[in-house]
Design goal:
There is one protein chain. The protein has 95 residues and is of the alpha+beta class. β4 and β5 form a beta hairpin. α1 packs antiparallel against α2.
Length: 95
């Protein structure tokens, strides 16, 4: 069974997302993080359900009922979450 691995930049993204929501809409902060984590857990069972990125070896998955996108790669023994991006931002793949 694959495990879930959050890369350092993805953890930084989560911390920034949490800080933003805690400051601007505290009642929504836990819900947003729960949805992001649930989306990552879903990918453990369905890693190929998403779109392949135009550049690089990664894939992307939209987090339900949010504007966030998980950028990840499938590894032999893990799903590695590389970044968590907001859909409105211009982001260059998996860097």
């Amino acid at each position: 069974m694959k495990s879930l691995d959050w890369a350092g930049k993805a953890r930084d993204d989560l911390a920034a997302i949490d800080a933003y929501w805690c400051e601007n809409a505290p009642a929504r902060a836990d819900d947003i993080l729960d949805r992001i984590e649930a989306a990552a857990e879903f990918l453990l069972g369905m890693p190929h359900a998403s779109s392949v990125l135009d550049e690089g070896p990664g894939r992307k998955w939209s987090v339900r009922s949010t504007r966030y996108i998980l950028v990840y790669r499938i590894m032999e023994d893990a799903i590695q979450i590389l970044r968590v991006h907001h859909a409105s931002r211009d982001w260059p793949g998996i860097e």
